[in-house]
Amino acid sequence: MGRRVTILGSLAMMAVSSCGAPPPLPSPPVHIPVTQQSAAPLAAPSHSGTSQAIAIDTLAKGDQSLMHQPGYQIIRSAGELQSLARQAGLKDFDTEVDWGEQMVVAVFAGDRPGTIDIASMQAKGDILTAKVTFQPGTGAPSGSGAGSRAYHLVVVPKSTAELNVRGLPEPQAAVPTPTASAAASPAPVPVAGSSGAPVTAPPGTSQDVVQLIAQGPTSGVKQPVNVVIQNAEEWNAVWGVHAKGIPQAQSQPAIDLTKRSIIGIFLGEQTQGVSGIAIDSIEPGNGKVIIKGHVVGGGQAAAQPFLIMSVPKTSATVEVQIQGGPQAQTLGNPGGNAQAGAGQPGAQPAQPAAPTGFGQPGSMAGKPGFGQPVGGSSLGGMPGGPNLGSQPAPPFPGRGGILGGGGGGLPGP
To answer: Where do the structural domains in the chain lie, given as residue ranges?
Structure first.
């Protein structure tokens, strides 16, 4: 109860805006024409204990896109589809989507010549499983010939179930120059999933994933702050402050907080054209989880960008470093420790961010202090907790985001 009261009290003060009503959401993106054709009704997913085949209908398929890494994305609205189409370089779709009843699943082969198909989908309980087949080809990678950066988008019945994708190709192996410090440091964990959808870990590793819950350019939290949430009371308090007064705010997502921790990143009131947050990496180890990202520009005159995600249950201290963002305290760390996030006002990302929620195969297996079920911990005396004025962590190079990156509005419910 102490954690909830503390977090709610802190956020309540941060919800006060000098501008009165929250700013409107940005205008919708340019419409992408869709070729209309009749389609047979799709079967609804089963929530029983037996598996049921799910009808799939191809929306788009080809061998040329702008996606350099293999991965997938769930699309739940026309705006999300338009955003993905622009960033992936897709132009034509083969059917129309009824967003009230349907959603889209997209898979990408990345810089691996060949073809990729969502061969089948099964529903069992609260899990949708997509079986992907990838046939290697001989075309040149990196978009220099036919058969590179293949993709497949399918229409399926709308569902809030978690999606498990099997059969994605592995990313092209990089050949870095080894250093002593790099060898001793844990590798950054690829971020995954759109609207709470996890990315499948490679065979032989555990299914530890990071899940995007919500993101957008407008929040009821008006001051910069990061929040680590460990129980339902805290989640209700934070979401209530965040969603208050926001037009078309999505319903509060249901998260199992006995198995996961929620991390919210709120940039507060921004007036320099900042519209979103992109997450570059998550590095667990040594009792910490370090989240690195950057701001995304091109937004409306005044916005309150935010990003909320969940991770496997952890008691580690969370440190958030958002390049170009304001310095912010972190509420909810063990012992009431408010770690200062690293920010460099005015900095811009070196490369454009990837589409919202675009995921890559990855695992958090074997990372100390991460993914282990633990009990919740108490906040200390907040607001204005210790270390708020501490020295920010050193900056890091901006990179294309794996998770987030756009200010295209809140996802649909």
So the answer is: 2-18+208-404, 52-171
